Amino acid sequence: MTAAHRLALPFIMAGQAQKEITHNEAPTLLDMAVCASAESVGDNSPPSAPGVGQSWVIGTLPGGTWAGKANCLATWTENGWRFLQPFQALVVWVLGDSMFARWDGANWEMGIVTANAVQINGEQVIGTPQPSIARPSGGLAVEAEARAAIENILDALESHGLIQV
């Protein structure tokens, strides 16, 4: 094996000449992947004047110097473009959209948060969805139905941590 599995960080091989070339590539790729950020997601053409350290998530039909690098994270360095093949669960903060993009193994998902609950200051504010609440319908006992519906609404809001009753 000549590289690490997930990030493809190159290994220095025994007896290798110019080890600094291999070693310098590894921190460059780490710099791209750790706390990754990108200007945007889905561009197919490289920008005309990228800044050193700026990154983009390449689209599905790239051209120019990005040709053949669909869905990769591309970063401009002092020595030109470096590409990181996405791996499942790679997360990138997208500066232009102010949200995360996550590689699901096949596509970049934008702005989707997966969780069992959301807590703020240790208090749950959103939980798992509750069953539907029956709407009051006409009939002789409209007031009783309305009260029951309101109780169910309050119970659901309370179970989500949105209110305290």
- Largest sheet composition: 4 strands, mixed
**How far apart are the termini?**
60 Å
Helix content bin: 10-25%
Rg, Cα atoms, Å: 25 Å
How does the helix and strand content classify structurally?
Answer: alpha+beta
Which residues sit in consecutive blocks of at least 5 with pLDDT less than 50?
Answer: none
In total, the number of strands is 10
Beta-strand percentage range: 15-25%
Order of helices and strands: HEEEEEEEEEEH
Mean pLDDT: 84
Shape descriptor reads: elongated
Strands side by side in the biggest sheet: 1-6-7-8
Number of helices: 2
Explain the overall architecture.
The protein is of the alpha+beta class and 165 residues long. 20% of the residues lie in helices and 23% in strands. The chain contains 2 helices and 10 strands. It has helices at 19-33, 142-159; strands at 37-38, 41-43, 55-58, 73-77, 80-84, 91-94, 99-103, 108-110, 118-120, 123-126. It has a 4-stranded mixed beta sheet with strand order 1-6-7-8, with no helix packed on it. Strand 6 and strand 7 form a beta hairpin. It is elongated, with a radius of gyration of 25 Å. It starts with 18 loop residues before the first helix and ends in a 6-residue tail after the last helix. The relative contact order is 0.10. The model has no long low-confidence stretch (mean pLDDT 84).
List keywords for this structure.
single chain, 165 residues, alpha+beta, four-stranded mixed sheet, 20% helix, 23% strand
Write the layout of secondary structure elements.
Blueprint: H1 19-33, E1 37-38, E2 41-43, E3 55-58, E4 73-77, E5 80-84, E6 91-94, E7 99-103, E8 108-110, E9 118-120, E10 123-126, H2 142-159
Parallel strand pairs: 1-6, 2-3
Antiparallel strand pairs: 3-4, 4-5, 6-7, 7-8, 9-10
